[in-house]
Specification:
Layout (H helix, E strand, L loop, with lengths): L3 H6 L13 E6 L5 E7 L5 H4 E2 L6 H5 L2 H6 L2 E2 L5 E2 L4 H8 L3 E8 L7 H10 L11 H8 L6 E5 L13 E4 L9 H11 L3 H16 L9 H14 L7 E6 L8 H23 L6 E7 L19 E6 L7 E3 L20 E2 H13 L3 H8 L16
Parallel strand pairs: 2-9, 2-10, 6-12, 6-13, 7-8
Antiparallel strand pairs: 1-7, 1-9, 3-5, 4-5, 6-11, 10-11
Helix pairs in contact: 7-13, 10-11, 12-13
Length: 384
């Protein structure tokens, strides 16, 4: 078990470490392990996902946003999981989910573009590093000519780099009404060749919609699709799924509930689709930064700093929340407004990846996060 004492003994605190989505990117490596990176674009509210219900200041400062967490799944004496994440709660009970709180990348200036660049490149500041840590991971794994493919309009930054990455996406269609799309579908219905191509394009269009759309069914289908591409012996071993819709400046309570329901369905779709391979799978869920502790005047939250990250999978030694909790009292906040980060996201990722793939921690950190002076002396994240 990691605790504050083990953080300090390593010489560093936290050594553990756009509005439409999802889009998917895949990489191939010669390993039996599977790894999935789900990025939450838009700055997901860590306190909304995993509420610090045991903190005396939580209910007062969060207002109406605290209500759902009060009815959530109690994780321990401090934290509760949002009730929309039913499947995730089950994985936590089974020891297959681990949550890290009060965590952040080195970035502090609250710009989506810059923050996502730091998260995906692994740099200490925006645009300091020109390739992505997920692309660099391909060079660390014991892979023979590892290849990557992005199923998206463009390859996500995390997958760009020296390793060649192909991309595939259906033709970009202008926004069209559902009536028009249905008319085109009927037009192609009698054409044996075009009907199949159009049906495939429509399916992809559905999969690239917001997590909250269609009650999470599209998100579940995305998880199942990722599993199908990860499952074959000759298929992908690493996947990246982009999700959007996390920028909840207004009406956060309902919007976040729908988003988390979709994320939960995606994780469940991955687990079901992978079957026995889930035992050797790790899923990382992370965002560029968190949101303000206090609620704004429109029932939402604004760009913040500290947030939460999640690990799922049969390969995760879960059933716990890892946190050096700073507290939510006014004097404890970062710049008097945000959750103060006490854990380093780059070290968390480096430690999780190195443990999962059996790579020496210092080597993994040097490759994935070359701008970081931190080490990844991490134990107890995965099952052995």
């Amino acid at each position: 078990m990691l605790d504050r004492r083990s953080f300090l003994s390593t010489g560093t605190l936290g050594v553990l470490g756009a509005a439409f989505a999802p889009r998917i990117a895949f990489a191939r490596a010669a390993t039996n392990k599977r790894f999935v990176f789900v990025i939450q674009r838009g700055a997901a509210d860590g306190l909304g996902m995993i509420g610090a219900v045991g903190d005396p200041a939580f209910a007062g400062v969060r207002g109406d946003l605290a209500a759902d967490l009060a009815a959530g799944t109690k994780l321990d004496g401090m934290f509760a999981l949002h009730p929309a994440m039913v499947a995730s709660a089950g994985l936590y009970t089974q020891g297959q989910a681990l949550f890290a709180h009060a965590i952040a990348s080195p970035y502090r200036d609250r710009s989506h573009f810059d923050g996502q660049n730091v998260l995906e490149t692994g740099g200490a500041s925006a645009y300091q590093v020109r390739d992505g840590w997920l692309n660099r991971l391909l060079g660390v794994l014991p892979a023979d000519q590892a290849r990557a493919i992005a199923v998206a309009a463009t390859v996500p930054m995390a997958l760009r780099g020296r390793r060649e990455v192909a991309s595939y996406a259906p033709s970009n269609l202008p926004d069209a009404s559902d009536d028009l799309m249905q008319r085109v579908t009927m037009l192609y219905e009698g054409d044996q060749q075009l009907h199949g191509l159009w049906s495939e394009a429509m399916a992809t269009r559905q999969l690239t919609s917001d997590l909250a759309q269609d009650g999470g069914r599209n998100a579940a289908a995305t998880g199942a699709l990722a599993a199908r591409l990860l499952k074959p012996e000759t298929g992908a071993r690493i996947a990246m799924i982009e999700t959007g819709g996390w920028d909840t400046h207004t009406g956060q309570r309902g919007r976040l509930r729908a988003q988390l329901k979709g994320l939960d369905a995606m994780i469940a779709g991955l687990q079901a689709g992978l079957g026995p391979l889930w035992a050797d799978t790790m899923v990382l869920v992370a965002t560029e930064f968190g949101r303000t502790v206090a609620v704004n005047g429109t029932g939402g939250t604004d760009h913040g700093t500290g947030t939460a990250a999640m690990l799922f999978g049969g390969g995760v030694k879960g059933g716990r929340v890892v946190s050096d909790w700073p507290g939510l009292a006014p004097a404890a906040l970062y710049e008097a407004r945000d959750l103060k980060p006490t854990m380093q996201l780059d070290a968390f990722i480096g430690g999780a990846v190195s443990a999962h793939f059996g790579v020496e921690p210092a080597r993994a950190m040097a490759a994935l996060f070359p701008a970081s002076a931190r080490t990844a002396a991490i134990e107890g994240l995965v099952r052995v």
